[in-house]
Amino acid sequence: MERVKFTSEFIFRASPSIIYQFLTDPACLTRWFCDEVDINDQTYTFVWNGAAEIAELIEDKEPEMVRFAWEDADDEDEYLEFSIGKSPVTGETIVHVTDFADDDEVDDQRALWEKQLGRMKAAMGG
């Protein structure tokens, strides 16, 4: 399978700084992304259903963007990135999620991010 990069866009009615907090703060991350998280310097250990995945925070521009590299990624060039911006037309906050998946699993990964970011919106109160 070939790995491909894809980006999905989500619109929020929250400030970039609040969204940034939901992407980096352990108390917020456990409300929408994972069951548990432990942060040690730049290393994030995310836990889902008892299984841990480790990611390194490799880029951090508060409140514009965070980028993680998964420790067990097949390709060292792969990453998970959340970029946060404002629409100049509507003033809404736009979050772009950039991720990698096998070429036959991109639609499933997009659906997963739709669900996860929907949970994040609900945790923020809309």
Strand content: 35-45%
Radius of gyration: 14 Å
Order of helices and strands: EHHEEEEEEH
Estimate nothing, just give the exact number of structural domains. Answer: 1
Overall pLDDT: 95
Q: In the CATH hierarchy, what is the superfamily? A: START domain
Give the secondary structure arrangement, pairings included.
Layout: E1 3-12, H1 16-24, H2 26-32, E2 36-40, E3 43-48, E4 51-61, E5 65-70, E6 80-86, E7 93-102, H3 106-124
Antiparallel strand pairs: 1-7, 2-3, 3-4, 4-5, 5-6, 6-7
Give a verbal description of the structure:
This protein has 126 residues and is of the alpha+beta class. The protein has one domain: Alpha-D-Glucose-1,6-Bisphosphate, Chain A, domain 4 (2-Layer Sandwich). Helices cover 28% and strands 44% of the residues. The protein is built from three helices and seven strands; from the N terminus they run βααββββββα. The protein has helices at residues 16-24, 26-32, 106-124; strands at residues 3-12, 36-40, 43-48, 51-61, 65-70, 80-86, 93-102. A seven-stranded antiparallel sheet has the order 1-7-6-5-4-3-2, covered by helices on one side. A hairpin with a 3-residue loop joins β4 (51-61) and β5 (65-70). α1 (16-24) crosses α2. It is globular and about 40 Å long. The termini are far apart. The model has no long low-confidence stretch (mean pLDDT 95).
